[in-house]
Every structure is written in structure tokens, then in C-alpha cells.
Amino acid sequence: MSDSYVIIGDGIAGASAAETLREEAPDAEITVLTDEGESLYNRILIKEYAKGKLPEAPISIHQEDWYDDHDVDLRLNTVVVDIDVDADAVRTHEGETFEYDSLLLAVGGTPQQLPVENADADGIHHFWTFQDARNIKESVEGAENGVIVGAGLLGIDFAAICGAQDVEAKYLMRGDNWWRYALSEEGAEIMHEAMRERGVEPVFDSGVDHFEVDDDGHVEAAVDPNGERYECDFAGVAIGLNFNTELVEDTPLELDDGIVVDEFMRTNVDNVYAAGDITTFNDLILGERGKNGSWGSAKEQGTIAARNMVEYGSEAFEWVSSYSITHFDFPFLSFGHPTIGDDSVEATTGENEWRRVALKDGKVVGGVLIGDLSPQSAFKQLMREGRDVSGQTDLLMEPDFSVDDLAATTEQ
Amino acid sequence: MPLRDTGRRLRLRRTGRVPADARVRHYDELDDDEQDVVRELAGDPRTAPETGDLDDGDVVKFTDYYRIRAR
To answer: Which residue of chain B is at minimal alpha-carbon distance from A333?
Structure first.
């Protein structure tokens, strides 16, 4: 009898796991359950669709016939309501039961809503799925004024969408610069100026106290904690994700800001694995538990999970992630964990060029590059090798930095 | 991603229109070698040896949309 694998989630983590399982276990039964109404699409590119820059077709990655061709049983619009790890079975909202030999949880997250009055009004959008992108595109195309909340990597997509769709917008930030946990004011100002050039005005030391709505329940203004009122008929909120752990809260699975897995993507239940945004994993590079929400990381985790579902211990997850912003005339890239560490170095290296490297115990743990991305491979290499760069951090700021520039140090 | 030995060279051309049937990928989907090539050739008329999975007709979203020519 062949093994049976059930995967919950058809994002890039679940889909890459299905693809790998089919390669590694040609005779296995593979079932993919997803609450979405469409199969795998390119989550990185849906912002381009919302900007009006890209048609729908290229965003789809797996047509439904892909699943037939690979003998994968795909169930769309299927909500899993119960996981019974003792019986090795999951139950769906329609009462159907799927038994498994191994289960993969690739259930991701759901955007957080602002805990303020009228946060669920018409015209206020969160951005996670392709359907969200369609709704945002339709809404923003008819809008004149926008408000954006959430000064991070997801919030800036809303700024770019407003800019591309000629919506004048205010970007309300709680601190004094965009992504203040990873950028100093000097670096952030490059991003602020790019926003302004597109008609999006950053507003600092602000935020949202409540939204005002019209008689039809549609948003018409955001009021910040200082009492300033910003008219808007479109609002984009990107303040983070709630990880979809409620499904496993009544199971023995260990949770810690997500589902805890080892470096092989296995949970504390031997035949249950997890991959993608939902995981809190044993980060071999960082030497502690880590989280990562990038596309590349999720894809790799899905692949690694699948290999270990077939043969546990066959391959560990060891990955330096990166995430770029390509909305502007210059590129932006964050890598590793730029918001942690006990030290950092930063420098302006040219016009609209800035970089910052975060360090912990003398080692590179992450960073941000604006304008000039050329050192990205070198910095990632330093992370992978665990090189101690103590006393040489100034070299990291040299425009043409190469790993060979560093004096030989002990690798860990 | 291993280098392909086809002898073709890559060039990137900025494109304002993305065909519905094009394979479109974002910079973040590319491996390190492919990212290096895209960075070096974006907005530059130079060519570079073919690398990774970048193929003729592909479109890459970097700071603009670029169509790949492999000849």
C-alpha cells in the first residue's frame, strides 16, 4: 500500500511540497486542501496586478490541470475544521475525512485588522490573497484620496499601488520613519522621497485612532491620535499577520508565535510537518528559533519538508532569505534578519545608495541595501559561513566590498 | 542553478507591455546567479552569458519590467 500525504494550504510552501513529494514518492497518494478558490498563484506579483501593471494570466502558476497531470488531488474551497493527530486524520467543513500517513501544515497567516473603530468599513483593505488584489485594484481605481497604515515591507506596497493608480495618499506612520526597526532616518529618507515623488506623503508620529464612515458605511476619513483628520475613500492597512494556528490549538503541537518545527520542518508530533509563514523553525544559521515570511524561504521549506516526510533527516533547512522592493527607480533589498542584533554599521555609498548591516556577536545576521545591491551575495555568504567580522566592519561599507577583502577568520 | 552551455548570450530590454502568455517572474524568485545577471544588465545594453533558468521571452520584474532576449 502506498503512503498517503495530506497538505493543508496551496501557497508556495504547500505547492512546492506537493511537487517534491510527487518526485520523491511517485506512487504516493497526495491530497492538497485549500480554503482558497483558486490554485497556486504568484503571491509576489499580485501587487503588480493591483498597480495595474500586469494582467491576471501570468500570475497563475499552477493551472488545475497541473494537479491532474501530477496525480495530486486538489480540493479548492475546502476548510479544514479539525485535526486529529491520534487518528492521523483531518476533517473538513463539509464533514469529509482525510486520513494520512504524514501531514503538512502550510496554512500561513491572515492580515491583522487595526483594533480601532470602523476598521472593517467598506474601502478599507488588507492585502494577502489574489482576491484581495482584485478588490484593491477595483477600489483604488475609483478612489481620489488614500490613507495607508503600516510602516513596513507590506505597507509600502499600498503606497506603490496608490502612486501607480494616481491616488493622492497619506502614509500614516507611528514613528519618525518608515521601517524604523531596520532603517535609520538617513536610509528611510530615500524611501520617503520616492514615495513623495509618487504622490504619497509620509506622515510621522501619527497612526490611526479611528476611521470615519459615510451613511453607506464607506470609509471617508482616518483620524490619527493627534486629532488630525485625513480624508480618504481608500485605505490600506498592513500591520502584520495573525498566524493561522487556531486549527491546531487543541492538538499536542507546540506553538510559539507559529508552529514550532525542527530544522527538518517536523513538529513535535512525528508524522506532522509544517512549512512557510506559519513555522517557528530551528534556524541553523542564527542558532536560535527564527521566523521568515519570504517567498523563497517558504518555497524551500516546502521542499525540505517534503523530503523529510519521505525520509526524516534527509535534508535540513538552512537558508538566508531576502526580500526586495522594486517599485521605485532604485532597488531595495533586505536580507537575513535586519531588525535584530547587538550592533550595526551603516553608510551612504552614493546618490540614493545606502546600506546597513546588522551584527550579532560579531557576525552578520542581516541588513538592508538601497540602490546598490551588488554586495548582497557577499553578505549572504558571510551569514552562511558564520564569519566573525569583528574589527573589520568598516570594510562592509566599502562600495566594492568582497568577502576576499576580509582578513582570514575562523569560520564557525 | 547550473550554467547552461548553449553559447547563447542574454540581454535585457525594458518593456512597457507584458503579454498575457509571458512567463513573468519577480527578482525575488530568481536564484543568486540569475539575480546577479539581471542587476548587471538592467538598463544596460551589454550582454552576459546565459545563466540559470532565464530564457528567451521571459519577463523579469526588477525596478522596471525587462524582457529577456537570448541569442
So the answer is: B28
What's the rounded Cα separation, in Å, for the pair A365 and A144?
42
Cα A375 from Cα A193, distance rounded (Å) = 24
| Cα distances (angstroms) measured from residue A263 to each of A109, A279, A288, A311, A363 | 21, 11, 11, 14, 21
Chain B residues touching A329 at Cβ < 8 A:
63
Distance (Å, whole) CA A136 – CA A50: 6
Cβ A83 vs Cβ A103: under 8 Å: yes
A55 contacts in chain B (CB < 8 Å): 18, 20
pLDDT of res. B2: 47
Which residue of A16, A40, A43, A54 is the best one to mutate when testing the B interface, meaning the one whose CB has the most B CBs within 10 A?
A54
Q: Which residue has the cell 529618507?
A: A189
Cell matching residue A411: 569560520
ipTM above 0.90, yes or no: yes
Average pLDDT for runs of 10 along chain A of length 412 = 90 98 97 96 97 94 93 97 97 98 97 97 97 97 97 97 98 97 97 98 98 98 98 97 94 97 98 97 94 94 98 97 97 96 96 96 97 96 96 95 82 48
Which residues numbered 10-49 in B keep a CB inside 8 Å of some CB on A?
18, 20-29, 32, 35-36, 39
- Compute the distance between CA of residue A99 and CA of residue A88 in angstroms, rounded to an integer: 6
Strands A219-223, A229-231: pairing kind: antiparallel
Specify the residue for cell string 521601517.
Answer: A179
Cross-chain Cβ contact A326/B36 below 8 Å: no
Q: Say if pTM beats, i.e. exceeds, 0.80.
A: yes
Please give the Cα distance from B14 to A69 (Å, whole number): 35
Does the distance separating the beta carbons of A44 and B29 come in below 8 Å?
yes
Whole-angstrom Cα distance, residue B51 to residue B71? 13
Distance from C-alpha of A9 to C-alpha of A40, rounded to nearest angstrom: 9
With b for 16 or more beta-carbon neighbours within 10 A and e for fewer, the A244-269 pattern comes to bbebbeebebeeeebbbbbbbbbbeb
Cβ neighbors of A225 (< 8 A, separation 6 or more) are A206, A207, A208, A209
Strand blocks (E) in A156-208: 168-172, 200-203
> Cα A51 vs. chain centroid, distance in angstroms?
19
Question: Which residue pairs from B12-15 have beta carbons closer than 8 angstroms and sit at least 24 positions apart in sequence?
Answer: B12/B38, B12/B41, B12/B42, B12/B43, B12/B44, B12/B60, B12/B66, B12/B67, B12/B68, B12/B69, B13/B66, B13/B67, B13/B69, B14/B43, B14/B64, B14/B65, B14/B66, B14/B67, B15/B59, B15/B65, B15/B66, B15/B67
